[in-house]
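Attaching the record inline, Q. Sequence:
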Amino acid sequence: MGLLLSACSPTKFVPDGQYLLDKVDFVTDEESISKSDLKMYLRQEPNFKVFGLYKLYLSLYNMSGRDSTKWRNRQFRSIGEPPVIYDEYLTSRSEQEIQKFVRTKGYCNAEVKAWTDYNNKKAKVTYYVKSNEPYRLRNISYNFASDPAIDSLFALSNKKDSYLKQGMLFDIDQLDEERKRIDRLLKRRGYYYFNKDYLVYTADSSLKSHEVDVTLSLKPYLKSLPDGTLAEVHHKRYTVRDVNVLVLKDSKSSYSPYFHYDTLRYKPNVNIISQGRPILRPKILDEELRIYPYLPYSSFFVDRTYAKLNALGAVRSTNIEFVAVGDSSSQLDCFVLISPSKAQSFSLDLEGTNSWGDLGFAVTGGYTHKNIFRGSETFNLKGRYEQEAYSGITNFLSDHTKDIGAEMSINFPRFMFPFTTRQFRQRISASTEFKLSYNYQTRPNTYEKYSSIIGVRYIWNMRRFYRYCFDIVDLNYVNINTHPDFDSLYSAPKYSVLRNSYSDHFILSSGFSLVFDDKSSQRRRDKTYYKVAVESAGNLLQGIFELSGREPNENGQKEFAGIPYSQYVKGEAHFARSKYIDRKNILVYHLGFGLAYPYGNAEIVPFEKRFFGGGANSVRGWSVRTLGPGSYSSENKDDFVKQSGDVKIDANIEHRTKLFWKIEMAAFVDAGNVWTIRQYESQPRGAFTFDSFYKEIALAYGAGLRFDFTFFLLRFDVGVKAYDPSRVSTEQWRFKGLNWSDDFAFHFAIGYPF
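Structure, as predicted:
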């Protein structure tokens, strides 16, 4: 297909005497002038390039014939993109717009000239930007004396937050940001009807030294008098009189003044209005409100009320409005309209699975109630049954792997802890989650595993884009019955450490994680994500054991309730950055690191807490749990038991480009591996050492298709091994003699890998 597309002439549909706009470039003499910013002011751009390299859509369009009545030609033209014909007028317009933009950044004498080169019916346009000497701010002053109340309020504000600094460029955007900052400041202090248009600049650039003195002045409020004239008065500061919370009946309801509503005066000047019993308890509504009677209006607390109410699972949307109480009054009545979401939902998923060529299926069912106790508590109940064929068996119905699990959780959208005040609970904005799960796994001739988990955690957001999670307790009891064939296979002394992962054990852990994610920001083009997490297990049980005065068992292990417990500390760190190239291209890179260290009552980290390499979110040239540790060479498909480690490094870079409809494409390069923290006999060549680990970093490359349906994203990736540390040195680089079954890995996943 690539050969066919490249054979099509890109100028096939370019009329004689006209030119295809093939390329646009910028040349500037000032590094601070970003080419990506200049590109936004182009009035004509070339045809889109996939990955910034190939004009795929133009090639598809050119594959059509000249007869537009034929179905085949219409299809190619609808999918493709017609050639962009060079337009001299649009080039001139782009030249003007770019010059205007550069001059608003402080380069008031900047000059922009466009130069066009013609060759073989193609046109290349280069915009040359000559910045000349910029203008800078010399003196910055504020004149708010006409309104003493605002003047004194501004005098008490933090001047360090100003967007204007002496010596900075005379940047119009920064000047406007300063107006917005003061507007936000006043709206937070009660000035409901204030806006930035009341703030005006005067600039004096007559110094003939490329320096500017600016003064920001306050315009008075114009009030209409009974005789129709306007009078200049001071801006009015408003306080809240009544807070009226109107709760609709269900998700399909809408407000109508003709309906009958019941009014509950919950407290003085706070009214809860609903049709019948409100879906949320009055106490819950009151605790989530951040707008209070008798206090000055504040846009900050309005935003906080929006955030708190919309975070409730039982709430679909919130609308807050204010109405002035008469023309002469300085009071506002607040109306909060709450539309509830659908309370209950059911889900049923059927999956087909393929692991190492063994086919299977999985059924997952779930039930969710977003308001089970009328306090927006989210109750989740989930069950899963999975069955998969196993290599070498003859009867799928009786000999197969099986996974049966059930999980129940309930999330309370508030901090639940005894002896806490209402003010404290509101300040930390935390939710509390309780979780209970049970899982049963069986593998033919290997083991039966029973796992029970009880967990309690707090989740809260104290700053924008930041999410904190504190796992108070996570108790995991694992009971394993091994098959005689498994016992005989791993009975050798060299497997003694590995067998610890396949014996009964307790894991009682606590942990903390911090996540920063600004993908919801509308102002930032480049997005950043990072996560830091730490987990520790066994210390509490160690203390209980020491106080009990008991002795270790015959294997030297300390026990709780007759079962050995694990001790370890585990930490992870991830960083991802998406770099905006243009509206259809994004470059994303990711770096991850993990370390788990067993100590005390554990020689090895429990299997379910170790790290694994390969898979849809790791090094994609390997299937999940088939990479590492180190240069360890897998013996067979059951080696997933030994292909785990205590140290993990992942590094990825991915170029994402939008194609058409909801489809986008990606090309990626991945690197990484897992290692053990100690040299275990059952995992030869798997230990991490500083003098050799870099030689054991696996490399892979590949491409994928993604279907972005807004609410979820389906991802299909194909990874190819480039460097395999488990092979002998002459076969580690895999660019030649690729084996379809060993060197390629196919991944299906939901969501981006990072």
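The radius of gyration is 33 Å. Residues 247 and 274 are 5 Å apart (CA to CA).

More tomorrow.
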